Amino acid sequence: MTTALTARPRVSALDRDTAMRLAATEYDRVVALLEGLAPHDWAKPTDCPAWDVRAVAAHLLGMAEMSASMRESMRQVKAAQARGGVFIDELTDLQVTERAGMAPAGIVARYAEVAPKAVKARRRMPWFVRRQKMPAAQVVNAREETWTLGFLSDVIMTRDPWMHRTDLARATGAPLVLTAEHDGVLVDDVVREWHERLGRPVTLRLTGPAGGTWGEGGPELEFDAVEFCRALSGRGTAPLDTEVPF
């Protein structure tokens, strides 16, 4: 059961330039990881149920194509809605299914081609569109909430490939490139949202290149920065029960 949330629609806490810098860098890092995979890596299982490496890459490509073109975005949305199930599940399954015939090399090449277009289209989204509410409520921590299109474009559409990049690295053993300038900023945004959703004092220390220290008072918690984020997304083993959407 979900409980309706009457708060204002969620907006991005990142300024636009930072959000687009993170988007461009994350797309580039996904391209680099995909280009480095060996042929036998593509069939390896991932932490995403029912998805192997190839399926995760197909989903990433579908999302990038959705971001790059309003026409493609509307097409995917309508096709997913027509399926009648939970929208996000139907959307991601549609993306994987429609690209089932693509060879790994084709997925990589197409992703590298469309990623800059996705950044450009996201950057060009007008302010009045970014302020609009998404048509459907989102369920986070068993509560319904509304998001603006700006929050989806500036935040979620970058967190999604970032999290799946960690999935691919874990599945294949590929290097997971992490820097304070990129991943540290992304993690900082996640932590600040987590503190807001948690609603009580906590001192959090995250280790690794993307880590840092946040908050004061309350219990002291320490985790690896990536594993902390994976736990908030429903992955991993860290004992955290407050979700943050990715």
From TrEMBL:
Protein name: Maleylpyruvate isomerase family mycothiol-dependent enzyme
A Pfam family hit: MDMPI_N
Alphabetical keyword list: Isomerase
Organism: Lentzea sokolovensis
Cross-referenced SUPFAM superfamilies: DinB/YfiT-like putative metalloenzymes
Domain Mycothiol-dependent maleylpyruvate isomerase metal-binding: 25-169
NCBIfam families found in the cross-reference section: maleylpyruvate isomerase family mycothiol-dependent enzyme (TIGR03083)
GO terms for MF: isomerase activity
Gene3D superfamilies: dinb family like domain (1.20.120.450)
